[in-house]
Amino acid sequence: MPFIEFIAGSVSGALGLAVGYPLDTMKVRLQAQSAYQGILHCMSKTYSNEGLRGFYKGMAFPVLTTGITNSVVFGSYSNALYYLTQSRHRGLDQGKPASAPQVFAAGCFSGMMQVCVNAPIDLVKVCLQGQTTVQRYRGPVHCVTVILREEGPKGLFRGGLAIALRDIPSYGLYFLPYEVTRKALTQSGEEPGTFATMMAGGMAGVVTWAFATPMDVVKARLQMSRAGGREYRGVLHCMRVSFREEGARVFFKGLLLNSLRAFPVNAVMFLSYESLMSMYCPPTT
Prior knowledge:
mainly alpha
């Protein structure tokens, strides 16, 4: 039911985004810039220079487009999982839980699908978040206009390879701990409750970001390379230069923030998504 999934994805995505956006801004700045000594220093500098609005730079564009992104993620995952389980069991046992490889494969498929939609959105968000003193972009529309004028349509996919390398395997991991944790916290024969869904969503977010952070650092630096940041020729060049100058720990910049942000964001997002889907598409008995 694409329309229901779109509505559920829109609402759950917007709620999750609002919960974690200030921490996401701090994460992007720590990863893409070396001017900060740590989380608290980044927060204090942002607040002193830009006030509270500095933590929400670029938020409007992701909020307006989160419905598309989340509906692609959840819709492609649920449909891929349905296809995989039906093809294996030939439609004779629809109630049988999916296996771990099937969940991972469906998650990877959803990650691949959302990269095409999310790459330009994430680029605009990062460019706006990365602005500190010099305001190169006046807003999301102006940002898109400048990128198209200077780089053409392919400029909107700057860092797209890094996003694909981050998101395709990460979304496989994303749904796997969710399904496992939710099942473990639910008694046999019962529907998952609020606690099980929130804990499963939170755990899924933390596990996924622990795996995804190294490529997330590379992605942020590539996206900022023509928006006031250092220039990189590609993924491997960015990794080599970053490692040579800052050591292996550079690839874990923002890991603490990602973990702190991931649990509440994904707990809220999965709970709201599952609640809305249960409301409009109640399970058959």
